[in-house]
Amino acid sequence: MFFVTYLRRELRRRMRQAIFIALGLALGIGLVVTVTAASAGVRKAQSQVLKSLYGVGTDVTVTGKAPKPPSLASGPPKNSQTFTVGPGGARVCTNGKCHNAAGQTIDNLGSTSYSPISQSEVAAIARLKNVKAVAGGLALSDTSITLPKHFGQAGGSLPTPASFSVQGADTSHASLGPLSAGTITAGRSLRAADANSDVAVIDSGYAKSHKLKVGSTVTVVGHKFAVVGIVEQPQSGSPPQVYVPLARAQALGKALGKSLKGDVNTIYVTATSAANIPAVQREIENLLPSATVTSASSLAKQVTGSLSSTARLANDLGRWLSILVLIAAFTVASLLTMAAVARRVREFGTLKALGWRSRRIVAQVMSESLTVGVIGGAAGVGLGFAGAAIITAVAPKLSATIAGSTGQGVAFAGAAGGGGPQFFSPAVPHTVAVPMSASVTLAALVAAVVLALVGGLLAGSFGSWRIARLRPADALARVA
Amino acid sequence: MYQLTDVNKLYAKGRHTVPAVRDLTLTVEDGQWLAVQGKTGHGKSTLLNLLGGLDRPTSGTIELDGKDLARLNEDRVTRLRAQSIGFIFQTFNLVPTMSAAENVEAALIPLRVGSAERRRQVQAALDSVGLADRARHLPGELSGGQQQRTAIARALVKAPKVLLADEPTGNLDEDTRDEIINLLEKLWRERGLTLVLVTHDSAIAQRAQRVGVMTKGQLKIS
Predict the structure, then answer these.
(1) Do A353 and B83 touch (CB under 8 A)?
(2) How far is CA B206 from CA A55, A441, B44, B91, B163, in A?
(3) Angle A465-A468-A474 (CA atoms, 0-180°, nearest 5)?
(4) Which one, of A60, A403, A400, A111, lies nearest residue A236 by Cα?
């Protein structure tokens, strides 16, 4: 009781100094809590982005490398369409056979982002050790263009192609792949029984902009698909717009003139445990050396945009700023405690003369310092919560961009004005907007408590060291 | 009983060593009052610090009831101080944030006396110096004489064998000085204390049983 009374009285005597030290510690700890909360928010946002890109349950994604555009010297690939504009007007040619293209619609379902991978590789991956589940997919883009009748003549120009993304989804693995992260808002998802049916699930944004609903039809390279469901993906970026059964996408899709039957260009893999993801990634890289194998962590490194900048800001600048403020706060607290001890030399000398052991006086000073630290820590937690709330309230949505993630590039060969082939990639970079919400985590609170204690102990220890060395005769002589 | 034999205390001042106490051999019997006079800087306070175990001699022995304060480890000297030696200072040295009662109570903390017993002893000590009604006052709310009375109560609350007083009236006016000295003398007689009192005041020194004068670190008992 005497101990507490002495502590209370001393803190009251030095109230202004105690408040100053506590505020310094509070500022440092509040900053640490805020930065930690912001980092947690950014990590959560990253996780949302990766989830939206990956789908729930996907640990590793395998994609075919982006195909090289055909060179002019080698001529167009077999079965591919080219169109040329010459004195006779616009002409479309397939394997050397040409006809007048004016007024025609050219429709293509393919991918310029990913090369095809044989579907047999899906089974090969499924046999690998530590692989729990595998599903193949085809990320394609339907691009169509209607050439005007006077195209190729004076005044005729190439109109803008219309395009939408098409995802061939493995209907037997609904829990894996691009549909797994979405929420069906109307109708139903694709089922195993739909494997060879002309049915489609469409993205909610696409449905809204094209006024589509369950029961409507969408046309993919001239084939009508009945809309059986509307899906809403977690983020508002550019998810696939039309999901069709994988077999139908394979049947309709082409890669540089070649059918995609028996091919996929994206493979979704689930590992048996999170610890096995790197091993699975390595095994697949060995199995498919020409493919691109990404895990959530490797994909996270490719994320650019404001999300990436914010992550860097929170992780680097925020961390260093917190450390600097903490060092400053700890230093000021230590110096002020030392100064307070210096002013109380006579008091401590007297207590020693009364028979107080050094360690008892040290405990007194340490407890005063710790109390100030704990008060600073509590205030710091409050500041941290306030900082996190302010960030959540004022932070704009963060955008994350991953180049070439969707495989929605479409090759479009042409020779306008006698030029070479042209490639049209409407939506290769995938941009997702995510809300930034900073939430104070338990780890941040633990860090705050630890920092408060460390701050208090550090400040007290310098003063205590001086007290421990203080000889009572010296202390008393100094005032005599 | 104090038995000092060939005590020397040297201080280093820059490159030089200054003797504060030189070749001091002295016996102070139990219950004896020794007054020590001398000019400032001639070693009076150093002698008092050595007697109280607040400092150690450079050479020689300082025995209190057969225990050599120069040889005991710090913990044992501290315990001996807590149990057997009371101090009174010229500047009172009260803890400014503690009330008069708490200042007195501080002397009982190292002795691990229970709180109820502490309160009883504190009350009795303040009664004995006539400050029972000022127990809850802070030092800043007390006069110089009252502060020194509080310091005397603090020194005596643990019923020490020895009382060491360093210019206890140095900061007091004449009336208060007499009041304090009368009180000290009364307590010395009642309790059979061994009292070593450092003073510049010859009138006070003359009331002691023995008077010593410190000159350049050497004590001459008259």
Answers:
(1) no
(2) 100, 75, 17, 23, 18
(3) 115
(4) A400
Q: How is the beta sheet containing B194-198 ordered, strand by strand?
A: B85-88, B162-166, B194-198, B33-38, B210-215, B218-221
pLDDT digits (tens, 9 = 90+) for B144-177: 999 999 999 999 999 999 999 999 988 888 888 9
- CB-based contact B89 A350, cutoff 8 Å: yes
Structure tokens at A88: 């006779």
Q: How far is CA B113 from CA A255, B107, B110, B132, B135, in A?
A: 94, 10, 8, 20, 19
CA dist., res. A351 & res. A472, Å (int): 9
- For A292-315, give the DSSP string: EEEEHHHHHHH-BSHHHHHHHIII
Neighbours of A88 (CB within 10 A): 11
Q: What is the pTM of this model?
A: 0.62
Residue contact B83–A480, C-beta within 8 A: no
How far apart CA A7 and CA B97 sit, in angstroms, is 10
Of A428, A112, A72, A65, the C-alpha closest to A256 is A112
Q: In angstroms, how far is CA A317 from the centroid of its own chain?
A: 19
Q: Which residues of A touch B (CB under 8 A)?
A: 1-2, 5-6, 9-10, 12-13, 346-347, 349-358, 360, 471-473, 476-477, 479-480
Chain B interface disruption, residue of A12, A354, A362, most B CBs within 10 A: A354
pLDDT tens digits, residue range B94-152?
Answer: 999 999 999 999 999 999 899 999 999 999 999 999 999 999 999 999 999 999 999 99
Asked if residue A281 has pLDDT above 80, the reply is yes
Q: Is the ipTM of this complex over 0.85?
A: yes
Mark A291-315 as b/e (b = at least 16 C-beta within 10 Å): bbbbbbeebbeebebbbbebbebbe
Q: Is the pLDDT of residue A315 over 60?
A: yes
| Helix, strand, coil percentages, rounded to 5, for chain B | 40, 30, 35
Task: Count helices and strands (H / E) in chain A.
Answer: 13, 20
The per-residue b/e assignment along A7-20, b for 16 or more CB within 10 angstroms, e otherwise, is bebbbeebeebbbe
Secondary structure (H, E, C), A103-157: CCEEEEEECCCCCCEECHHHHHHHCCCCEEEEEEEEEEEEEEEECCCCCCCCCCC
Q: Do A235 and A52 meet the contact criterion of CB atoms below 8 Å apart?
A: yes
Q: Average pLDDT of chain A? A: 79
For residue B197, give the H/E element and its range.
strand B194-198
- Tell how far CA B99 is from the center of its chain: 21
Least Cα separation, residue A474 to chain B (angstroms): 8
